[in-house]
Design brief:
The chain has 282 residues and is an alpha/beta fold. The protein has 9 helices and 10 strands. The protein starts with a helix and ends with a strand. The chain binds S-adenosylmethionine.
Amino acid sequence: MNKILKKWFKKEANNLNDIEFKNWKEYVREKDIILDSLWVLPEREKTGVHTREYWGNFIPQIPHQAMVRFTKEKEWVLDTFVGSGTTLIKCKQLGRNGIGVELVPSIVTWASKLVDQQENPYNVFTKIITGDSRSEDTKKEVVKILKQHGKDKVQLLIMHPPYHNIIKFSNDPRDLSNASSIDEFLKMFREVVDNYADLLEKKRFLVLVIGDTYSKGEWIPLGFLTMQQILNTKQFILKSIVVKNIVGNRGKFNQEELWNYRALKGGFYIFRHEYVMFLQKL
Ligand SMILES: C[S@@+](CC[C@H](N)C(=O)[O-])C[C@H]1O[C@@H](n2cnc3c(N)ncnc32)[C@H](O)[C@@H]1O
């Protein structure tokens, strides 16, 4: 068995992460790597300065899994909807350089302070840029930072857009949560992908984190529609769709009862999952 593994390992040069053949099992154990497509996580990781204060932020386990599988130490990560900075806090914890883009200036100020408070044992660079991720000017800022560090590509792209209008993040019309329709949302999202796709190194991963939505009594498969926008660029192939449970945010007992009743009466199921989609750049 070991011989077969060794042969595979040699054949498939490992340029994606720091895993070495002789200690791959320890690596998987030490880094808590999940290898199947159903992520049932009991609770939100509470290490470092991670906080649940920002409504709509993702759990730190998501950028953790993406970074340990798909980047090496000191490589570069770009998050185009960085919100409260979860990705950048994780970058500092794992020793990756990170750039985040966020539209809302007050969030940038708050998140930048939070990220600054995180210890930086690997001495990596992190920065949040204020801007619209669809705009050429914002991209120029990202390129400028990379250039200052002698780089022109990133090795991981993370996108956690609003789930259309489920949470409104601002009143800014450039905010994807203010898109007037699903079609408009998908168009705006595609603009973000088109803006940054060429900054991702070939064979590296784009990680899309997204949930579905409900409108006028109909389940809208927003996750798949958004994923399709990436595939439509013809620059990526789909490698995995992970279904992840939503960790304990259902609110008070009364609300839980109300939702259960509405679901029963309305003929639908209550959202308990979202998607983490892994796409590889061609
Ligand atoms: C789902 S949240 C991301 C949360 C983030 N993963 C975290 O852990 O905090 C989406 C974020 O995208 C931002 N946003 C919306 N439209 C944007 C745009 N056009 N450019 C950049 N950021 C945008 C929102 O303000 C919001 O903070």
